[in-house]
Amino acid sequence: MDKSGPQNELQNCLTYTSDSGNEFGRTVASRAIKSEEIVSPEMARHTPKSLKTKATKWIATHVPGRAHHHNHEHSDTGGTPWDTVHWSEHAHCAFHLTTSDLIDMRKRSSRAYLNVGGEHHEIMWKTLGNYPNSRLGRLSLSMDPLEIMQLCDDYSPQNNEFYFDRSARSFSSILGLYRTGHLHILDEVCVMAFIEDLNYWGLNECLLDACCLTRFVQRKDRMEEDIKKTSSTALPSTASEKFGQGKCAEFQRRVWEVVEKPQTSTMARVFAAVSIIFVMVSIVGLNLSTVPGIGETATNRSDPAAGGAGQWVRNHHLEALELICTIWFTFEYLIRFAACPNKQQFVKSFLNLIDLVATLPYYVSKILEACVDFSVTSLGAVNEIVQVLQVLRVLRVFKLARHSSSLQALGHTFFKSYKELGVLVLFVLIIVLVFSTLAYFAEREGNRATFSSIPATFWWATITITTVGYGDVTPQSPLGKFIGCICSICGVLVIALPIPIIVNNFAEYYQDQARLKKAAKRRERMEKVLAFGQENKFYARIRGEGPPELDASVSMDKTIAERSDKTSISFTNPTLSFTLTDANPDSKIYTDNNGGTNS
């Protein structure tokens, strides 16, 4: 194509429009330069960057045939007339839209024809004006071709139809907002996709009616929470990113899988079983240590300073058992900490904090016993401290939660339902205070010994609200019995209210865990594929006359067969069998497994 003629004419057009201030002509001329692929750096420098928009591209393509119209419109300004510009055949075939055309079309038809993703809709122009700040509202009020093409993706002059390259799934609901003033969301529409559609059309989710707004907010919050939970597991960092590379990193990864993932190997299952056995043995030893005659035995010796009282000696076998269990728990904690890729997250973990709190008291008690003097007073004080610290040993039972998904689900449910549990405790305290006061004043005349004060009546109100009813404290007067009946009924109602919410949280946790397990399995399969690919990939470049150039990373299902002279390499995969020959680089042969051969 000879570009010298059009370049000169378009350059004259740009000069004319720059001198006369004709922004319309500058737009047309600059777009014509781009559309005709006329390379002229000098002309490109004169083309404003503001003209390089989608609307400018459209109007410059559609407006050239209107040259005679604008020639008459600007004939008094002088300069090069518009009809002297020789436009391409592509430009002559286009239909051209101006502001006057828009006004005429609006006068001829009061309906707007919209095409959203191939779905046709009709609506009155004045109806679209109900929300003037939205995309369709601005479209109905605008008479500027440039602005219109910024609001829509395309325009068909033949059908007077505006095209929007969007999904039409929720567009009927959006048009219903313009018609009725009510916005509803269908159950089958994804809330995240609906939010994107609202943002595109320039509408706010607050316009949803009350019947749909609450459900929409709940679904949105649930979806955002699910995305947040799944994203960290579905797209995690690979093993090399978490542990690094090298033999030490590989050893650390394997140790971490043994101590943290019992399902990965036989050694991991054995380690988990041994850990559970030590936990059970420690709990049994703690219980036996409190049984008279087993945990402590009396001696015949008496200490005059203690008033001649007999001495109690702890069972040495249970002491040795506790020492062995503590050593195992310490070893387990240290090896978990050493193999963990994220030490900060490990320290903050609730189960790891339980392990630490349940193990440290043993060492603290031994240090106290070794540091103090052996006087009776000091030994008594140390013994009291040791007894208090031994209470923390019962926390070892929570170590079983590491190997039990049910216990983890229960703990997570309580943690997630802390608001409901807090409200429940508040209601119970209020009811206890109210009915304790009523029962005290009802029973203070005839049953003053039992209901001696309002705080003393708290016990009766608590066991009545929880429907336990020990019977150790009971009202005697008819009014007191009536208050007791009302108290028990209120307790049943208050305690039963948050139970469904807690049950729902428990069920949701199980569903989340099932989804996360699937995501984790997908991640593990992906890591295995990546690990296999790093060891067994062969990068081949195939050039020839048959298919186009191919740069492929081929994962081989068979071992690469390489000749000793290394002049020919062949390998296969499920779809193609390649043979590369160095002797004749111009001849590259590949065969598909269906029997076809190409070169």
UniProtKB/TrEMBL annotation:
<dbReference type="InterPro" id="IPR003968">
    <property type="entry name" value="K_chnl_volt-dep_Kv"/>
</dbReference>
<keyword id="KW-0851">Voltage-gated channel</keyword>
<dbReference type="GO" id="GO:0051260">
    <property type="term" value="P:protein homooligomerization"/>
</dbReference>
<keyword id="KW-0407">Ion channel</keyword>
<protein>
    <submittedName>
        <fullName>Potassium voltage-gated channel protein Shab</fullName>
    </submittedName>
</protein>
<dbReference type="GO" id="GO:0005251">
    <property type="term" value="F:delayed rectifier potassium channel activity"/>
</dbReference>
<keyword id="KW-0406">Ion transport</keyword>
<keyword id="KW-0472">Membrane</keyword>
<keyword id="KW-0633">Potassium transport</keyword>
<keyword id="KW-0812">Transmembrane</keyword>
<keyword id="KW-0813">Transport</keyword>
<keyword id="KW-0631">Potassium channel</keyword>
<dbReference type="InterPro" id="IPR028325">
    <property type="entry name" value="VG_K_chnl"/>
</dbReference>
<dbReference type="InterPro" id="IPR000210">
    <property type="entry name" value="BTB/POZ_dom"/>
</dbReference>
<keyword id="KW-1133">Transmembrane helix</keyword>
<dbReference type="InterPro" id="IPR003131">
    <property type="entry name" value="T1-type_BTB"/>
</dbReference>
<dbReference type="GO" id="GO:0001508">
    <property type="term" value="P:action potential"/>
</dbReference>
<keyword id="KW-0630">Potassium</keyword>
<dbReference type="InterPro" id="IPR027359">
    <property type="entry name" value="Volt_channel_dom_sf"/>
</dbReference>
<dbReference type="InterPro" id="IPR003971">
    <property type="entry name" value="K_chnl_volt-dep_Kv5/Kv9"/>
</dbReference>
<dbReference type="GO" id="GO:0008076">
    <property type="term" value="C:voltage-gated potassium channel complex"/>
</dbReference>
<dbReference type="InterPro" id="IPR011333">
    <property type="entry name" value="SKP1/BTB/POZ_sf"/>
</dbReference>
<dbReference type="Pfam" id="PF02214">
    <property type="entry name" value="BTB_2"/>
</dbReference>
<dbReference type="InterPro" id="IPR005821">
    <property type="entry name" value="Ion_trans_dom"/>
</dbReference>
<dbReference type="Pfam" id="PF00520">
    <property type="entry name" value="Ion_trans"/>
</dbReference>
